[in-house]
Amino acid sequence: MIAVLGNNGSGKSTFLNVMAGLLEFTGGYSIDGMPFKKMAQAESARRIGFLPQEAALNMPFDAFYVVLTGRFIHSDGRMYSGGDIACTEEVMKRFDVFHLRDRLFNALSGGEKQRVLLARVMNMDTDIFLLDEPFSGVDILHQIKIVDIFRRIRKEKIIIVVIHDLSFAIQHFSRFLLFREGRLLYDMKKDGLSAGRLSEVFGVRVGFAEQDERMFVYTEEM
Description:
The chain is an alpha/beta fold.
């Protein structure tokens, strides 16, 4: 569970788009020793699930079909199997959107849409999930449920999440990529975080407060 942190415009979304193969880039990176640039598009699609920051569907599909399309990479390209249907029902139950299955996607609230789209990406069952602000518009109850889902699969998957809530990130994530002005300044585990480094990244004075064995962040202008 990796949190990508930084101010607006610092390069977080660009980083995820590059990792997903949607933007050209210099240099390279590998997945299990295979250079990404040498992967066929079908192979990278089976390895990486991507939720962009502004994911939108303006088609009159019901929520079930939207989530079902996440299984397309596992289908024969013509029709979905009984297994695909079962996986879709299960993931919708996990993300608490199964009761919305017959509702038109466009008629859902912002938070409901976000959970449906997140369920769709997780229904791809890829090795790597790149999630750009997946908690945006999602209420606190479902944020905690989503984090619990991430915890259950983190031994088998890589989950990279752009997130703005520092306290939430520090409480729930174990590794941090800190961006500023288009540069990756730090890549560290939780024990490497410091008020000084976070202040450098965000351009504000950052401090830590501990309560009930949990770490919280407070900020003030320098």
